[in-house]
Amino acid sequence: MKQQDSLSEIQTGKQHIIDNKELNIWEALIPVLFLMAMLAYNIFYADGAALGDYSNQFILLISGGVAAIVGFFNKVSVSVMLAEIWENLKSVFVPIMILFLVGALAGTWLVSGIIPAMVYYGLQVLSPAIFLPASVIIAAIISIATGSSWTTSATVGIALIGIGSALGIPTGMIAGAVISGAYFGDKMSPLSDTTNLAPAMAGTDLFTHIKYMAFTTIPTILVTLVVFAIISMNIDTTGTADVSGLLATIDTTYNITPYLFLVPLTVVVMILLKTKPLIALAIGVALAAVFAIVFQPEILSKIGTTNFEALKTAVLTDVEIVTDNEKLNKLFSAGGMNGMLWTIYLIMCAMVFGGVMDAIGALARITKELLKVATSVFGLFASTVFSCLGLNAIASDQYLALVIPGKMFKKAYEDRGLAPENLSRTLEDSGTVTSALIPWNTCGAYQSGVLGVSVSDYFVYAIFNWLSPFMTLFFAALNIKIRQLKK
Fold first, then answer.
1. pLDDT at position 283 over 50
2. Helix axes 114-125, 243-253, angle to 10 degrees
3. What is the C-alpha end-to-end distance of the chain, expressed in Å?
């Protein structure tokens, strides 16, 4: 059992931090550098298809193999690596089930007329001049109420993408606005799991954390709203003049009625009542199927010979509702559960890579090295930020991006006389929100898959998400609201 002597494990809930004393920093960085080099080649030189349609997935698996080789040379057994991979895969079982249900939800909400109804009424209320800032606010309200950026994207996010696309607004802008609002709400909601996890790691209470986090979060969302307002006022859209034609086409294709909104309303209410997301989404799919039979029999007859066959197609595979408007044809299509497979494979491969990196002790080693260069208060904040950013990219999981720096940096903040809410706020400002900016992170893969917009397309417009780490560093540099421990 000599190998076990070189490994120490700290367990926090279901998250593990493994420190391997045999591993040095350069060995820990080998898989990371390999991963980044391969991804850069795939994106910039191979147009995203160096290894076929699943290039990113293969690159993550190959990088996991490189990490395993490094582990072999540092006395880490295959069983330890497999155990950590299995723990990682188990941790994403529920998110994967949610993704499957979101695919089914998109298909059934399309054939039942729910999404077309959202677009139909939304086109009459939201104009291009206010659309982007309104999207931020709508997403923020729903996310605060539900405590979930994922639920927000799967409900109002999909609808806003449809409405904005019909108005001629680029989908990258819309997705950026939705994600900005969704993650603002996710951060500030007491119902959010990450908002509860960050103070638990830092050693403060939930409401102190939320109150202290508002100092950096409110200015960030205000800047985001101002930027989107400026973009909206200067946006060149092609959909404004065509709204009447779009409305007429939707009205002739579907049986549009306000009763269709009972389904999304039911899902949102269930989530507010703390119903498990899997149950809420499953009921949303079932209700949409019933509403499709009641309100859209003509649509179902075009998809399959029987209602059951049509609904099965909508839930499992691709479905497209053909109209006389090309813009609506692109909008009124869904991939069902099958459309989520690319995203699910990406998440699973990312968990394999992150599991091996954790098992060989690379994650802990990289974080410790960042802690060593924190020679000042600002340096401590900067090291925390870069640690969270790095773990979001390396471990591909926002929870690890909160847990590992939280455990590693907690004592350093105490030693500097800094209150724990400094750490919890920094974890959220740099760990929670930036997870959606990494394509292979579980959050980035989810948001991209659900909204149907690649991370590269919405990255620049997810203003709240990439501005948050800069805001927390700005406050640290100027010593604004840096609370000291009470003596």
1. yes
2. 150
3. 45
